Amino acid sequence: MWCAAWRSLRGTAAATTLVAIVFLCADLAPTGLPLVRPPGSGATSIAADSCTVFSVTQWDTTFVGNNEDYTYAESYYWVEPGDEGEHGALYLGLDDIRPRGGVNEHGLCFDATGLPDALLNRHWERPSLDVHFPILAMRHCGTVQEVIDLSQRYDWGRYLRYQVLFADASGDAVVIGPGPDGELAFTRKNGGNGYLVATNFNRANRRHGDYPCERYETCVVMLEGTKKGMELTLELCRDILHSVSQREAASCTLYSNVIDPSNGLVYLYYHRQYDEVAILNVAAELSRGKGVHKMRDLFSEETVVRGESAAPKCDSESVPLVVVLLVGSAGLVGLAVVLRVEVCGRCSVGGGNSPSCQPCLYRPLHRRPVLSLRFRFSRPH
Q1: C-alpha dist (Å) from residue 333 to 10, 130, 150, 326, 344
Q2: Which residues pair with 260 in a beta bridge?
Q3: Over the stretch 25-66, which tens digit does the pLDDT of each residue have?
Q4: 126-145 tens-digit pLDDT
């Protein structure tokens, strides 16, 4: 009885261990959010992680700021001139060359922040997105209202794991994300003075994501001054981004950008080095045609070396893979130990009567010979 109970317990432990290893490795494994998914396969994804985004307007001045917070990676910018009937755009991102932010030739800007997966209601009567929505908006929209109208023409799939802030040259801004009712939610900042901030909690549902958020509160406090007479300047936006920049290996600020949509300018800062700024002219970059460029080439060698040497080196791909391998290996070793005792079915005190029987590792629990699983499907020993 003891032996049968023990074998049953070991078998259950082995199965449980195997299932746990599979799920843990799947959870830890590096995942890439595809730029394009097959129609109907789920929410079209955008590369978005622990970032801080804001749009602020004071009279005729509008700025859109962003910190790109992620594990260490190379930063790039590139352009999509636009086919006939489409708008050209300049995009910012990392070495996966997936847009994490950008601005088009009409001054429409976007940037996104990551959220936990949220369920969306399917709209089968609408066409599915076959390219991620911000790119679609950059190609076909010039204002925030046009973006909102466009977003409601498509089925966004089953899941959404980000929210995206759009802003235009008029000062209009919106955060589009998953609502608590499963529909898209629109958090607006209408044209005119004011600001809109997004970090990593859902602006339409604070219980969804990381709330309260210190980065969000810092932005709000610093931007509130623009409503009380403080002049809105590039330097203020830079200081805000500096104040909420990240230094940890799992989420370090790789670059910061401030977009001036009215004048078609992008101000870039590299690896938290806010004393040097690189300026991109959207029209000039579009005239150069397609091309992918490293951000580091825009800055002095001193700034690049200082910024990269101070950045925690936590590679976004290799570290999770190492973790997966270590966890998987340790789990498999443990599983092998459990299965060895179970599979061998080592017998009772004295080693049993068969030559194939050997003393059991758990001898105190056994009182008589038992069947060996090595022969369970052929013959008893």
Answers
A1: 15, 43, 53, 11, 16
A2: 265
A3: 444 444 333 333 333 333 334 444 579 999 999 999 999 999
A4: 999 999 999 999 999 999 99
User: What is the DSSP pairing of strand 265-270 with strand 61-70?
Assistant: unpaired
Contacts 24+ apart (CB under 8 A), 149-153: 151/176, 151/184, 152/184, 153/126, 153/127
Q: For all residues of the chain together, what is the average pLDDT?
A: 80
Domains and their CATH numbers in the chain: 2-27+320-375 (no CATH), 52-316 (3.60.60.10)
What is the pLDDT confidence band of residue 319, given thresholds at 50, 70 and 90? very low
- Distance, CA of 150 to CA of 163 (rounded, Å): 16
Helix (H, G, I), strand (E, B) or coil at 18: helix
pLDDT at 22 over 50: no
Mean pLDDT within 315-334: 52
Q: How far apart are CA 89 and CA 37, in angstroms?
A: 22
Spatial distance between the Cα atoms of 184 and 180, rounded to a whole number of angstroms: 9
- Cα–Cα distance measured from residue 65 to residue 56, given in angstroms and rounded to the nearest whole number: 8
Q: Of 55, 65, 53, 57, give the one whose Cα is nearest residue 192.
A: 57
Q: How far is CA 130 from the centre of its chain?
A: 20
**What are the tokens at 163?**
């929210």
Omega cis (within 30) before 380: no
Does the structure show a pLDDT above 60 at 2?
no
The Cα 337–Cα 335 span in angstroms is 5
- The one-character DSSP state at 375 is G
Place of tokens 């489409």: 86
| DSSP reduced 3-state for 74 | coil
